[in-house]
Specification:
This protein has 480 residues and is of the alpha/beta class. It has 13 helices and 19 strands. Helix 8 runs parallel beside helix 9 and helix 11 runs parallel beside helix 12. The longest helix has 23 residues. The mean pLDDT is 95. Bound molecules: S-adenosyl-L-homocysteine (SAH), iron/sulfur cluster and FE3-S4 cluster.
Length: 480
C-alpha cells in the first residue's frame, strides 16, 4: 500500500458514466507512475478467471482498464496486482478459490506491494464475504458482478484505503457501456447481449448472484459488433444465460432471432455463435433464421439437465423429455448439419435409477457431439438445497461414470460422421503440445489439429479431417 494518497481531488470526478470511470483510469495512471518511480519497474497485474464465458468477457473488460491504466499484464501469479474473477455455480468452483488464497498470502508476504482483488459471482454471497473478512484479512478489495464497471474507481479507492475495501451491490438496473476491453483473441470476441437470469432453475445460484434479466438495446449491441469487426474480429459469440428470451423486457421488445438478423448484416463478421439456449424458449423463428443463415454457426448448446420429466418439473425447467426430443428432431429436420451439445446434472435430489435411465435414453436419442456432465452441487439459498432425498455420493459417482462412458461413446460415433470431409476452419492458436501443429475450430464448434504455423492464426482455411480422435480431429490443410 502507498503510505500517502495521490491528491487528485475525487470531487473533480464527473458524475456521469462512463466519463467518471475514464477519470479514475487516468487517476490509476498516477498510482502506476508512482509505483514506477519508487521501484524502478512497471507494476504487473494478473487476472485469473473461473466459470463461464460471461466471466471470461468480464475479465477482458478488467484487462482493458488495467492496460489503459498502465499496468503490465502477465500470466504469472506472483504479480503486483492479482485478481480472481470467481464463479460459484458449483461448490468446487468456490473451493478452488479458497485453496489458492493461502498461497497468495505467501506471495504477498514476499512482496509487500502486492494487492489482492476478488470479484465475480462468488462475492455476491454474503457468507463468502464474511468468511473472507474473517479468515483471509489480507485481501485488499472485493466487489461483485453488478458494479464490475466501477473497477477503476474501486482500484483508486483501494490504494487510498488502509483496510479491506468491500463494495457490493445487491442488484442493479444500470449497465455501463463503452469502457475499454482487451480481448484474449484478436479475431474473435464475446459480446454480452443480456445480463442476469429470471428462470430460477431450482438447483441454480446464477439468478441470485447475477440478478434479474436485463437485455441490452439492439443498437448498442450492433455498435459494439461493428467496432469489433472494424478491429479485425471475424467471429462473435453473443452471450446471455438464456439468449432465447433476449429482448422481452426492452421498452420496444425485439426477439433474439431479429437481433441475429441484424448482427448478420455487419460486414466483416463471418461467424456468429451464441450461448446459452434454454429449450423452453427456443422459437421457430430462431430455427428459420439459423437455417437460412450463412454466418450463424450450425451449433446449438441446448442444456438438457435431466431426461426425466418428473425431475425436469422439480428443476423448474418448463419442458419434458418428450418436448425436448421433439425440439431436437425439429432442429435436425430444418438444419441437417446441426451439431448439438448439452449440459447434464447427475444426482439432483430425489433422482431415482429410473430417472437416470431416462437421461441415458435422451443421450442415446439426441445424438450430441459432446456433453458437459456435472455432479449436482447443493447451493445455499436455492430451493433444491432443502429438498429431501439428497442422493448419496456413491450412487452419484456410479451414475456419473456410466453417463460419462455413454457420452463419450455416442459423441465419438456422432462426430466421426465428419471424417474425410473438408471443412472451413478458423485457426485459433499454435498447438500447445506440438509447435508444428495449429489448432482451429470448425463452424460446428469441433476442434481440429493440423500442420501449420502462427501465420495462419485468425484466418479461415479449408482442412480435410483425416482422423477422428474422439472429441476432436487431426487434419491436413487443403490447398487450392
Ligand atoms: N444458463 C445456462 C447455464 C448456466 S450454468 C442454462 O440455463 O443452460 C452452466 C451449467 O452448470 C448448467 O447448465 C448446469 O448443467 C450446471 N449447473 C448449474 N447449477 C448447478 C448445480 N447446482 N450443480 C451442478 N451443476 C449445476
Ligand atoms: Fe441457472 Fe437456469 Fe438461469 Fe441457466 S436458466 S442460469 S441453469 S437459473
Ligand atoms: Fe459461474 Fe457466474 Fe458464470 S456463477 S457459471 S461465472 S454466471
Amino acid at each position: 500500500m502507498l503510505d500517502y494518497t495521490i491528491t487528485t481531488e475525487n470531487s473533480a470526478a464527473p458524475e456521469t458514466e462512463p466519463q467518471r470511470q475514464q477519470f479514475f483510469i487516468e487517476k490509476c495512471r498516477l498510482y502506476v507512475e508512482d509505483f514506477r518511480i519508487r521501484t524502478g519497474r512497471t507494476p504487473t497485474a494478473n487476472i485469473r478467471t473461473f466459470g463461464c464465458q460471461m466471466n471470461e468477457r468480464d475479465s477482458e473488460k478488467l484487462r482493458g482498464i488495467l492496460a489503459q491504466a498502465g499496468y503490465e499484464l502477465t500470466e504469472q501469479e506472483d504479480a503486483d496486482l492479482v485478481i480472481y474473477n470467481t464463479c460459484t455455480v458449483r461448490e468446487n468452483a468456490n473451493l478452488k478459490v479458497y485453496g489458492r488464497l493461502g498461497y497468495l498470502n505467501g506471495l504477498k508476504k514476499k512482496n509487500p506491494l502486492m494487492r489482492i482483488v476478488l470479484c465475480g459471482c462468488m462475492m455476491q454471497e454474503k457468507e463468502v464475504v464474511e468468511k473472507i473478512r474473517k479468515s483471509y484479512p489480507f485481501v485488499d478489495l472485493i466487489f461483485g458482478t453488478h458494479n464490475i464497471w466501477q473497477f477503476a474507481e474501486l482500484l483508486c479507492r483501494m490504494h487510498e484505503s488502509r483496510s479491506m475495501l468491500v463494495e457490493l451491490w445487491e442488484s442493479t438496473d444500470q449497465v455501463v457501456e463503452e469502457l475499454p476491453a482487451q480481448r484474449t483473441y484478436a479475431f474473435k470476441s464475446g459480446v454480452n447481449i443480456m445480463y442476469g437470469c429470471n428462470n430460477f432453475c431450482t438447483y441454480c445460484i446464477v439468478p441470485y448472484v447475477r440478478g434479474r434479466e436485463r437485455s441490452r438495446e439492439p443498437k448498442d449491441i450492433l455498435r459494439e459488433v461493428e467496432a469489433l469487426a472494424a478491429d479485425g474480429v471475424v467471429e462473435v459469440m453473443l452471450l446471455g444465460q438464456n439468449v432465447n428470451s433476449y429482448g422481452r423486457t426492452l421498452e420496444h421488445p425485439v426477439s433474439f432471432a431479429s437481433l441475429l438478423r441484424e448482427v448478420e448484416k455487419v460486414e466483416g463478421i463471418q461467424r456468429i455463435r451464441f450461448m446459452t439456449s434454454h429449450p423452453k424458449d427456443l422459437s421457430d423463428e430462431l430455427i428459420e433464421v439459423m437455417a437460412d443463415s450463412e454466418k450463424i454457426c450450425p451449433h446449438l448448446h441446448l442444456p438438457l439437465q435431466s431426461g426425466s420429466s418428473a425431475l425436469l418439473h422439480r428443476m423448474n425447467r418448463h419442458y419434458t423429455k418428450e418436448s425436448y426430443l421433439a425440439l431436437c428432431e425439429k432442429l435436425r429436420a430444418r438444419i441437417p448439419e446441426l451439431s448439438l451439445t448439452t449440459d447434464i446434472i447427475v444426482g439432483f435430489p430425489g433422482e431415482t435409477e429410473e430417472d437416470f435411465q431416462e437421461t441415458l435414453d435422451v443421450v442415446r436419442r439426441a445424438r450430441y457431439d459432446s456433453a458437459f456432465t456435472f455432479v449436482y452441487s447443493k447451493r445455499t439459498g436455492t430451493p433444491a438445497a432443502s429438498y429431501p432425498d439428497q442422493v448419496s455420493e456413491e450412487v452419484v459417482k456410479d451414475r456419473f461414470d456410466r453417463l460419462l462412458a455413454l457420452v463419450q461413446e455416442t459423441g465419438k460415433e456422432q462426430i466421426s460422421r465428419f471424417t474425410g470431409r473438408t471443412m472451413p476452419v478458423l485457426v485459433e492458436h499454435v498447438n500447445t503440445q506440438d509447435p508444428g501443429l495449429v489448432t482451429g475450430r470448425m463452424s460446428n464448434n469441433l476442434i481440429v489439429h493440423f500442420p501449420g504455423d502462427a501465420q495462419l492464426i485468425g484466418t479461415i482455411v479449408p482442412v480435410t479431417l483425416t482422423e477422428c480422435k474422439g472429441f476432436y480431429f487431426m487434419g491436413e490443410q487443403t490447398i487450392g
